[in-house]
Structures are given as structure tokens and as C-alpha cells.
Amino acid sequence: MQQRQCVVLQGDIDWCQSASRKLLVDFDNNNIIYLSDTIKDADSIPQKQAKTQLGKEFDAIVFDGLTQLNPDSLGAIIGTVKAGGVLILWLTNNNPTSLWFQRFNRIVNDFNSKQNLLFIIQQDQVLPQLSLPTERLESDQTYLTDDQQQAVASILKVVHGHRRRPLVLSADRGRGKSASLGIAAAQLIKEGKQTILVTAPSLAIADIVFQHACHLLPDAELSAGLISVKGAEIRFVAPDMLIESEQTADLVLVDEAAAIPTAMLEKLVQQYSRIVFSTTLHGYEGTGRGFAIRFQNILDQKTPDWNNYRMESPIRWDENDMLEKFSFQSLLLDAAPVTDELIGDAQLDDCQFEKLDRLQLIDDEQSLREAFGLMVLAHYRTRPSDCQMMLDRDDISVYAMRYQGHIVASTWVVNEGGLDDELSTAIYNGQRRLKGHLLPQSLLAHAGVSDAGSLRYQRIIRIAVHPVLQQRGIGQALLNKITEQANEYDVIGASFGVSSELLTFWTKSGFIPIRLGIHHDEVSGSHSIMMLQAVSPAGQKILIQAKHRFQQQWFDLLHNQFKQLNVELVIQLSQLFDVDKINLPTADEQEINAFSHAQRGYEFSQLALWNYIKLIISRPVFLTLTQQQQHLCVELVLQHHDWAMIVKDLGYTGKAQIITALRQAIKLLLDQY
Predict the structure, then answer these.
(1) CA–CA separation, 497 vs 495, rounded Å?
(2) Strands 406-417 and 396-403, how do they pair?
(3) Is residue 608 a contact partner of residue 592, using CB atoms and an 8 Å limit?
């Protein structure tokens, strides 16, 4: 298979355009695309639209990086250059102030000196002679590699073998992973299976699955997201709809699973006994490896007999493709933390805290790859542009814990706040919204703390500890060190998708929850929680106001916006609240006693019970109830779930048994407190 080629043109825009036309004079004009934010013509699209071209193949791509270079777009579009094709990259030959670009330029020059397929051409120099891509011969073969055949066999085994043995299919780009899903779906339809459901972050992402399935089903009717063959169908269903509708299927195929929140994937594992998850390992969105670790833990718990197959052989390009290697290295697509073996013995006392010097970091490839690799592993959708942000933004600081020279934990911190009174008032009134400054803006606009804008904040935007070293106190020590050095600020905080484990981690480090986002975070699938720690007296004043406001609103929100919030989180958050001595009105006390010790109706005691539970849930005595009793008190009294839902969730036979169980729970609480 032909190698892919790369030409870097360094000159002004007119010369780059002219040189590109000369280089591509013999190429098929219908199979060339320009990505530029300055050129506006029929063959050009803005850089940010690179993702719209995924699934296509081009003979040549011209990427204009003269005024700006979007790393995410470059990483996405490189995968569409076919074998024998060419990437023409326009770069400035000035020495930019961007540290990210200095490193990128260095790698370009490294590849130019080591490879004979990457050329750097200065303005008016002689242009190289490019080879033309040869047309791929049409083949009757279903499989293009043995690897692909084995992948399809693994998918079919999910249907033909034992139930509840999911498959995780992983590969780098260009290995035919999505095509394998489509081939397997078509074969199952030919065997007589009736319903194959396909889900993905979007229908466009799943398009390759449908293309390959349709190719093998010539009699099929194809429409958007649906292939129909004699009553059988391959149908696309969005992930949230798939969970809510609880449809039946012979097989569920999840394409690009790493871009779907893990919480949603966990529900799919529970709902469907025959399911395949595919994910890209070293993609331009960088989610694959972190997903593999996080999701593996879930599968180990839910379906311990799950299987994994990794595809290695590329289909779209040569095994040792230079352009793939270049994209991996320059965009850090294959960045990984230090191997377990080198740091497995590390303890907290062996680690050193350090603020990383970004000038040194771009010349220390090992540290850069270890630091960025940690973030790729720990966070959803860590993109090449995040590395650009880390290296180039002056308001971001990077800290690390090292063990024997290796980075084993890292965090990125951004400075916020210092807003003037006029701007703060406009944000408080809902008239303005700034880019960035998440902590002060949320305190102003959501928490209603009117004097929060002028304070100085540090927000932790990323934190990661090497998986093999977690639970050794290293992450908490890192947070403590950051708090200690934040003496020029008033508040340090973070906002993240909440889970029980993360809430425990941040609470142990002295951070206090002051807001829970009403909407689900689009990345994690969880509600975003904001947690703060005061550094100065002014910060302490703001923190007390925000915490008090959150606690005031909490129980009203539980039966409205947070009606479906996980009960364990409801209890865990409530236990963090400050509650004065329980002092109920006499009428409430009488109603509660009559309900628990006699037969007073629930509907006639509901308000009194709500007043009582919202006080007692914040005390240790509430945790003496059984888990079922705790869930009953929260779901029925605080979240106002209907009877049918509580029967389904907690296994009661009906309303009468629910009321009896609630009487017993309240009586136990009254007897103990």
C-alpha cells in the first residue's frame, strides 16, 4: 500500500496558494479539500468544520495554518487522507511566541530530516514531485484484513454465545472498526436476526456502520439511520432514547463509546444482554485509553465475563504510515503516563511537589508526555487543543507531583475574578456572560452572592493521579500544596461532574459544595458540582454566604430539578450540611408521632414529615436506617416520587406496604433521636 505524503509550505498566503495548485495539478480536483479561515471559495471550509468530513477519503488536503492552527481540526482531518494521498500544510516561518507552536515546528523539522515523505519548502524554493494515489481495486472480499475478519467474528460471538458477555472493540483510526460493526450487522440480518440497534454520539458518526451494512444487503431499503430488509431492520437510536425506551434487540452496537458518558454506558450494560462497545484509542479527541480504564472497572463489576478485541492492522494506509506517526507525535495523540512498573512502589513521602516551567516543558518531551498523558487517561475528551492551552495561556499554571523524575500526578489551575462592580452587577442581573471566570460568574448569577465578582480565584480545571497510585493520599497532598501557595487569592475551587467518589475526595481535601448544576454535564452525564475552599477572610465570607444559600434551596430543589438525582448523592450531600438543633413546631411533632405510632394518613402528615426528614437527613442518626429505608425516605418524602416508581425501585408490593415501611423508618428515627 502506498505511503501517505506531507508537504509543509512556509511563505505568504499568495505563494502558498500558487504552490499548492502546482503540487496538485495532476490530482483529481473533485477529491481535494482546503481548510482555511481566510480563503473563501467553493473548495474551502473553515478549520472548525473538519469533523464534518469524517468518514470521507481525500486524495489531497490543504490545511492553512498561517494565521492560526487548530490542533483538533488538524488531528481530525489527517485521518481522511487516503493511502498515497497528501497533506499540504501551510505554516508561518516566523518564530512565534506560542510555546505549543515552537514544539510543533520542531517536530516538523525532525520529520523532515528523518523521513523522505515529509518536505519543508520555503517560499520560492523548488517544489517536490508528488506521486499520485492509485485507485484501490474493487474487491469482492468482505474483509480487507485478517484483523477485520477476527473482529467481526468476535462481534457475532456476542449474539451466538452466552448472554451478558459484552465485547469492547478498540482500535486506532483507520483500522476498519466501524466498518466491522456494519459487516457484522449485515451478516446477522442475513442469518435471520430481526433487530440490530446502533447508537453513537450522533447519527453522522454512525454513518460508516450503515454504509458497510447496506453494501452487503443489496435488497435493503436505506433511509437516514435505518436499513430495512423484509421486516428486519438495522436502526439508529440516540443513546438517551435507547435508555429511556428500553427497546428489545438481538444486538446493540455502540460506536465511539468513549464519547458517550460512562453513566449512560453503564445503564446500557444493565439493560441489554448482548452489546458491543467500540472505541478509538489514539483519536484526535483523546478519549480512548481513559475510557478503557474507567469502563473496564464497570464491566468487571456488572459483567465479569466481558471480552476485549483490539484491531491493529490499518486498512486505509500503510502499516508504518509516516503521517500517522507525525500526527501522534506532534499532537500528542499517543501521550501516555509513565508505565506502572516504574512508579508502582511510590508512596506520598517519596513524591516532590513542583510548579512546572512551561519553557522547560516544551524541551522535556518525557515530562510533557507524562503530564498530558495523565489528563488523557483521567478526563473525557482531552483534545490536542488542551495541550495548546496548557502551554500558551499565561493565566494557567501547571503543578505536578514527581517520583524519581516521573510525573505521577498533575493539576492545571486557571486564575479568575477581579471583576469590576459594573460588570459584576450586570452578571448578577443576568445581563452579561463572560467567557471563562466560571467561579465568580456562577456565584453571582446562580448562587446570588452579589459581592463575589471582585474577589480573586484559582479554579482547578484538571487534576489526575496515576491509576496505580490512587488511594495513597497523593491527590489530596497535591491539592493541599496548591492551596498553600494560593496566598495571593481569596478562593480556590473546582467544578466537575459529581460522583460519590469524587465528592468524598474533594470533601476530605477541605472543599465545600456550594452549587449543584440543574442540567446534566454533557461530557460526564452527571450533574456538575461546584466546590470551594476559602483562602482569605474575604473568601471565607463569600463561602459562608454561598453555602448558606445552597442549603436554603436544597430541599425545595429535590422535588423539582433534582427529582431524579441519585439517592446516595442526595444523602451524601445532605450529610455535609450544618443543621441547628431540631426544633419542629408542636403541630408537626404531633402529626409525625400520630403517623409513626398510630394510623394517621400519609397525605395528612406529608408536610410535617418533609420538615422532619429534611432536618434529620443531615444527622448521623439517619445513616442507622437500612439502605432501603434511607432510599424510601428520600424518594417518597423529599423527591416526591410516585407510588409506582417506588414500587419498581425498592421492591415493595404497593402503596400499603410503602406506608407501613415508612412508619417503621420514622419510628426508628424518633426512638433513636
Answers:
(1) 7
(2) antiparallel
(3) yes
Gap between the Cα atoms of 93 and 161, Å rounded: 59
> Closest by alpha carbon to 641, among 560, 523, 528?
560
* Measured CA distances, 597 to 457, 621, 668, 673 (Å): 52, 19, 11, 15
- Predicted confidence at residue 389, as pLDDT, reads 95
> 141 or 407: which carries more pLDDT confidence?
407
- Grid coordinates standing for 466? 496515576
- Burial class from Cβ neighbours inside 10 Å (0-12, 13-18, 19+) for residue 541 reads middle
Residues 6+ apart with CB under 8 A from 9: 15, 16, 19, 20, 88, 89, 90, 91, 121
For the stretch 297-322, pLDDT in tens is: 889 999 999 999 999 999 888 888 99
Residue type, 384: P
Closest CA to 516 of 482, 472, 547: 547
pLDDT at 381 > cutoff 80 = no
Mean pLDDT of the chain: 92
Residue indicated by cell numbers 473553515? 46
Domains of the chain (ranges; CATH) run 5-122 (3.40.50.11040), 146-311 (3.40.50.300), 348-557 (3.40.630.30), 586-672 (no CATH)
pLDDT, position 141: 75
H or E segment at 333?
A: none
Q: Which residue in the block uniquely carries the three cell numbers 507552536? A: 101
75 vs 19, 39, 48, 301, 588, CA distance in Å?
Answer: 23, 20, 11, 35, 63
List, in order, residues 6 or more apart from 413 with CB less than 8 Å away.
Answer: 396, 397, 398, 399, 458, 459, 460, 461, 482, 492
pLDDT tens string 250-269? 999 999 888 787 888 999 99
Q: Which three cell numbers stand for residue 68?
A: 492560526
Task: Answer positive or negative: Cα dihedral of 273, 276, 282, 283.
Answer: negative
Residue 25 has pLDDT above 90, yes or no: yes
CB 284 within 8 A of CB 72: yes
Angle formed at CA 672 by CA 667 and CA 673, multiple of 5 degrees: 100
191 has pLDDT over 70: yes
For residue 282 the three cell numbers come to 489514539
Q: Please, is 656 exposed, middle or buried when counting C-beta atoms within 10 Å of its C-beta (0-12, 13-18, 19+)? A: exposed
In DSSP terms, 253 is beta-bridged to 198, 276
597-626 pLDDT per residue, tens: 999 999 999 999 999 999 999 999 999 999
DSSP H or E segment with residue 351: none
In single-letter form, the type of residue at position 372 comes to F
Answer yes or no: are the C-beta atoms of 576 and 513 closer than 8 Å.
yes
Instruction: Check if the beta carbon of residue 84 is closer than 8 Å to that of residue 90.
Output: no
